[in-house]
Each structure stands twice: as structure tokens, then as C-alpha cells.
Amino acid sequence: MIAEADITFPPLMWGEVANDSAFDHAMMKATLGCDAGLIAYKLGADAVEAALVFAPEVPLRTAMAMLPLCGVGLQNALGALAPPEVAVHLEWQGGIRVNGARCGAFRAMASDPDPEAVPDWLVVGFTLPLVPALEDTGLTPDETALFAEGCADVSPPHLLEAWARHTLNWLSRWEESGPAALHAEWRGLAYGIGEEAQNQSLTGTFLGIDEEFGMLLRDDTTTHLIHLTTVLETS
Question: Which CATH number fits domain 4-192: 2.60.40.1230, 3.40.50.300, 3.30.930.10, 3.40.640.10?
Fold first, then answer.
């Protein structure tokens, strides 16, 4: 296992240890005008936290693809480090599923929530629990933790490094070739497509996504498009 001081990041990325929330640390640095590529992280005994700062050059509606992109990066990282029987899926709103149970989530915040504006910054981060919150896991059967799913040998520093590498790889592909490859990869990892879902006040069948990762939700009368910007947190 490598120490935090030995963690290495790919070109154009660098890391800072967060004393408290990694997401809040990244938000603070973004607000102060740090360059894109900063990864704030906190590797605790019970959870891994990391958050990446982006400086979008496109409207927020398009830039929100960074949320599923970062999720795909984490799935790819776990796919490389975890045992092959461990299944990782991604919820549209940012949730992470390991072997079908909830296991942490991604979140996002931008300097400007206007979908048509180009924000000064966008922060996407995740929290991944390593050990269950309760000793009696039977009390929360739909929630799990990474080490409880046969991943005790996954090193958090190695996972952080792998997430950074895979995320940068997908970012490069997205910038050079557009969203088609990311769409295909994400759809293969999406949790709940074809099943009943609830989003805001709507209930229907989750049909899939549009070109900007908006949710297509079909009820008895119509197909609703719910933009991914609706999952943004507000300060």
C-alpha cells in the first residue's frame, strides 16, 4: 500500500489533501480561482473522498457530462483493481451501486446553475464508503461498503490514482471525439434502465438518456426529458 505522500497523478492533474470534506475543499479552491485539474481528496479509515475541479468551455448543460464521465472513470478504476466478480453500476443522479446495493455517490456543483451559461468552474466529487456504517448490515440490506463486497485488498491510494487516470482518459476522448463513446460506456453501466423510476414529482419507466445525458422518463401519457443540471447542488 502506498502512502498519501507517494500518490502520483497524471499530467494536468494534481492533488491536495483535504482536512475535512474533499468536496468542500475543491469548492473553496475553485471559488478562489484555482486551475482546472485539482483533485482534493481525503483517504479516511472508513471512506474515500475525492473531488475534481473543471473549467468548462461549454454551457453547463453540456458540461454536466463530467458527472457521468467521472462515474465511468471510477467504475473503470474499480474494474481494474477489484475482483472480477464485483459488479459496479451507476445511477443517473450520481449514486454508485456495488453488487446491486448503494455504495456512496457522486455530487456536483457549479459557479452558475444556469444551464445555458458557461460556468467559471464545475466541481464533481464522490464519497465511497469502505466499511459499513452499522455492524449489523442486515438492518440496511440496500446499502453496502467497498470492503464488505470482497474488495478489502483494494488500496485507497491506488484507487484514487486509477480514478484520476481513467477519468483523464475519458475526458480526452470526450474532448477529441465527442460524447458517443462515453454514452455507450455509461449505458452499459447504468442502473435501472427499463425499470420504474422516480425523479422529482414524476414516476415512469427510465428509458435512457438524450445526447446531453438528460433522463428520458416515460409515463402513461408522454416521455419527459429531465436535464442532468437538475441534480446540481446549490450553495
Answer: 3.30.930.10
pTM of the model: 0.94
Q: Where are the domains of the chain?
A: 4-192
CA distance 177 to 154: 32
Give percent above pLDDT 90 in the chain.
91
Across residues 159-171, what is the average pLDDT? 98
Cell of 196: 420504474
Strand partners, 95: 105
Residue 2 has pLDDT above 50, yes or no: no
**Closest-CA residue to 23 (of 106, 145, 116):** 106
SS (H, E, C) the chain: CCCHHHCCCCCCCEEEECCCCHHHHHHHHHHCCCCCCEEEEEECCCEEEEEEEECCCCCHHHHCCHHHHHHHHHHHHHHHHCCCCCCEEECCCCEEEECCEEEEEEEEEECCCCCCCCCCCEEEEEEEECCCCCCCHHHCCCECCHHHHCCCCCCHHHHHHHHHHHHHHHHHHHHHHCCHHHHHHHHHHECCCCCEEEECCEEEEEEEECCCCCEEEECCCCEEEECHHHHCCCC
What is the per-residue pLDDT across 141-154, written as a single tens digit (0 to 9) for each? 789 999 999 999 99
